[in-house]
Amino acid sequence: MMEKKGISGNVLKMIAVVSMLVDHTAATVLERLLIQRPLWGPVTYETFDQYYNFYSVLRIIGRMAFPIYCFLLVEGFTYTKSKAKYALRLFFFALLSEVPFDLAFEHSFFYISYNNVFFTLLIGLLVIWALDCVREKIRLDGKAGGRFFAVGAGRVLLIAAVLLAGCVVAEMVLCTDYGASGVLAIVIIYLLRENRMAGFALAVLALTFLSSSSEIAALLMLIPLYFYNGTRGRQIKYFFYAFYPAHLLILSLICYAIGLR
Question: Mean pLDDT, the chain, as a whole number?
Answer without folding.
Answer: 88
